[in-house]
Amino acid sequence: MDFDLPSHDDPRRVEVRDWLAVNAAPTGRQLAEAGLVAPHWPQPWGMGADPEHQLIIDDELRRAGIKRPTNTIGTGWAGPTIIHAGTQAQQERYLVPMLAAEEIWCQLFSEPGAGSDLANLATRAVRDGDEWVVNGQKVWTSYGHVAAFGILIARTDPDAPKHRGITYFICPMDAPGIEIRPIVEMTGGHTFNEVFFTDVRIPAANVVGDVNGGWGLAKVTLANERVSLSGDGALWGMGPTFADVMDLVQAAGGLHDPMMRQRAASLYTEAEILRLIRLRTVSAAIRGETPGPEASVRKVLADEHGQAIMAFVKDLCGPSGMVTDGRPLGADPGIWHYGWLFSQALTIGGGTGEVQRNIVAERALGLPHDIDVEAGQGWAEATSGRRLAADGANGNDHRHG
Fold first, then answer.
1. What is the pTM of this model?
2. Pick the catalytic residue: 52, 60, 225, 294?
3. Confidence check: pLDDT of 205 > 90
């Protein structure tokens, strides 16, 4: 693709500017209904925009100082999955309020005993007439305390192999039986939560896709997550970028330490590679291709790049970088200190760097898969075997009386 954007008089630019002239200071709902929040989504929720058109829209909104509504998990992960496999009723009910950020979404995937091995999840959903009854626990649920809805995966057939007995639900977060407990980070902030389900009833109409077919949809969500978590910013696509660091450096008259100049050059190279990979990944996603191993490649690179940026800025502070108000080149210390603390989580959230490297090795490079000692076993059988093995290792094996 051509990485240079079209000129100022391109008709697609003019169309956006004309719309903004009529809709000065547009609301989130207006942007959503115009297809400008996620222009790559198909109509009527987006514009079916190709990669170049999408970047043009981004550029024009940025020039006009217009910020899109923020609903990261909704528009980044839940929405594309509902478009991919949701019913027409689900799409009509949820997508526009999601785009307008009138209803915030969260993701109910990770569990205390099923982190990187997500398919080993134990939260159960049992059919009861026109409802499913859910019991279990989720953890690391970003924005769960403010979300109206969550995308939930739960085990609906414990006798099936672990990847085949999972179903994907839309979960109202105000349903009776849901308890949300905050997890306060070392940054001092509260983004993550534990979520407990006790006899939570979810309508059968809230199943996305096929019953017991949720793992395939979870992979679609996770692939989009890896794209979303690898945006331009250093903190999962948010926050400062390497360009922001260079603005600080230039304002201070440049770098005089040759070692710091070399680090800056390396960061610039990484940032440019990531920008080009992101354009290729976005192009594939907008063409309707399911994100593949390249999403994992970029996530590994972007996470480590984000950590390197924040470490670089901390080092720019010199000795004052050891305190919370250390100022990098005279800048406001707030985002930089917070970002340095938060960046430690980058290589864990959304799939650890180690897991992403396994995905790249097996799916992109064709290297041998890890041996699956539980192949052919149902989830319940495999879980029972693991418990017996653990008991034996701990000297608690009572199988012989």
1. 0.80
2. 225
3. yes
